[in-house]
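Two proteins, back to back. First:
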Amino acid sequence: RHRIHGTHSRQDSPSKRPALGIRKRHSSGSTSEDRFAASARDYVESLHQNSRTHLLYGKNNVLVQPKDDMEAIPGYLSLHQSSDSLTLKWTPNQLMNGNLGDSELEKSIYWDYALIVPFSQIVCIHCHQQSDQGGTLVLVSQDGIQRPPLHFPPGGHLLAFLSCLENGLLPR
């Protein structure tokens, strides 16, 4: 489910927030490799949970097709509000779950697919809703470039996201 935080609501401390479910791989690598893997996982988690922003929306298994010649890949979509900005973030599940090997994590192509989109750069949003297939959202930047489409699963998730987005865009 999504949560809408108004400016009057209190912010939960980061220690009270649930973890994103990043699993620690047991490896026989050195302690420096273990520290790198832990810091990489901490970084991925901090993309979606931190004390500087309010999480307005979060949904796993939102599909993104990074390139035309690729299959769509599932990931975690979140919408964040800070004191002066509204930002959309999407991270492939492969990075969120920590399923990649420790040495593969840094050079993984999946880092190239992650999205961080400030809404100050967006001028147009295209939505396509199909009741039996979920919905698709396309963001268009000020320079006219379309971001990769976000495919929401069936069940009203696109509408929930748009509701949270609308609330985040309201003047404070």
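And the second protein:
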Amino acid sequence: MKLSINQIKNANLAWIHQVFVVAGDANPVGTTEYYKLQIREVSSAIKESRIEDITLKIQVDVINEDVLDSIKQLLVNNTTISEPVEVISAAVWLPVKMTITPR
């Protein structure tokens, strides 16, 4: 699911396990850099094809510390997320690169 920063506060996010933040559009081919925040452990019982269903994607113009802190605070304040506030607050944004190659 994709949301803007403004939609996080009131969205039902009870289902999310992880959050991805990307600046601009993800590249259809090539390398995309984004940040990942793990809200809760992804069970091995969840099939890889279902990962999309438990991932929140947020697209922003620019990624910086202030933007990531703002998103994390909105997640902490969202009452639909079942994880304790302490867990979300302690979670760390991880920089990730994903490369997609043409077939």
